[in-house]
Amino acid sequence: MSEINLKIQTLGKKTVWTLQGDWTVFALSQGKKAAFWLSKFPVQGDWEIVGKELTHLDTAGLAFLLECVLFVRAKKMNLKFSLLPKRVVPLIKAQGLWELMKGYVEAE
What we know:
By secondary structure, the chain is an alpha/beta fold. The chain has a single domain (4-104), classed as Transcription Regulator spoIIAA (2-Layer Sandwich), CATH 3.30.750. 37% of the residues lie in helices and 32% in strands. The protein has helices at residues 25-30, 34-39, 59-75, 88-94, 98-101, and strands at 4-11, 14-23, 46-57, 78-82. The chain has a four-stranded mixed β-sheet. It is globular and about 35 Å long.
């Protein structure tokens, strides 16, 4: 069975979330929902979401990343996506979300 998980690290006012495993529609439907994970995020400070331990990410996982963007924009917080697998940016572009999300994606 596919699993999703987050590794959480707090560095001062910055919270680093490392996405682990499969953030896919199947994994999200079998386990904890994206809303559960988003409820764990602090509502202040800076967020960094690291993708170096992602094994798979599809449009369901991308929806989670989009929810993060919308949340931080509403709260006027800072967000950075770093070390995303190379296939994630083309997925963002294919879904027509690049203009909304490009300011948060760290260049490789």
